[in-house]
Design a protein that fits this description.
Layout: H1 3-6, H2 18-34, H3 38-59, H4 64-81, H5 88-112, H6 119-127, H7 133-145, H8 149-160, H9 165-172, H10 176-201
Helix pairs in contact: 2-3, 3-4, 3-5, 3-7, 4-5, 7-10, 8-10, 9-10
């Protein structure tokens, strides 16, 4: 639990009161960010970066570059505009809504920067925006489960745990170049699986 929150909320032992505690933390976190508290912003980033990246990854049909740009924009927006939330669910819904908005803007910009636009492709990629958040998270979980163990671990460590290719190479006792090659294959497979699951289930 971040120091900022730990100092302001008493430790609660009973499991039945945990949701209320989480809601109180979310309210304090949003209020602190509204005051410009940098430690609160770091706490928000640490707590939600992975989930937002997973969410944006599905919105972008497995395009990790687009997902990273979108998530960065979401946190910039949060630093400027996050003011008050009623609880943890409200905070997540706010972040998810901003993610969808930023994805739409990023996608439209990409189309403006591209000389040739395929209307069918645009329609397919934007269709995911209308799906419920929980469904999109399930799509990613399902796609990850269809990867083999090494591919899934590479994606998890590189994107969600944010380890460098050099660090992964040391862990796996292989070269960074081999990590890069294996990671690229895993990314392509994940993109294909996400697209397939969305096209079959939407």
């Amino acid at each position: 639990m971040p120091l900022l929150i730990r100092e302001q909320i008493p430790i609660v032992e009973a499991s039945s009161t945990q949701p209320a505690s989480a809601d109180a933390e979310a309210r304090l976190l949003a209020a602190a960010i509204a005051r410009g508290d940098e430690s609160a912003f770091r706490a928000l980033y640490d707590r939600y970066h992975q989930r937002l990246f997973r969410f944006a990854l599905v919105l972008g049909r497995g395009d990790e570059s687009l997902a990273q740009d979108v998530v960065q924009s979401v946190f910039v927006t949060a630093a400027r505009k996050l003011r008050r939330v009623d609880g943890e669910e409200h905070l997540w819904n706010w972040l998810a809504r901003v993610t969808r908005q930023q994805f739409t803007r990023a996608w439209r910009k990409r189309q403006q920067d591209t000389a040739l636009v395929y209307a069918e492709s645009l329609s397919d990629d934007c269709a995911a925006i209308a799906e419920p958040d929980s469904f999109l998270e399930e799509v990613l979980d399902g796609a990850l489960k269809m990867l083999d163990d090494e591919e899934r671990r590479l994606i998890q460590v590189f994107y969600f745990e944010r380890a460098s290719q050099k660090e992964i190479a040391e862990q796996m006792a292989i070269t960074p170049k081999a990590v890069s090659s294996r990671l690229e294959r895993a990314r392509e497979k994940l993109r294909s699986l996400i697209k397939r699951k969305l096209s079959h289930e939407t």
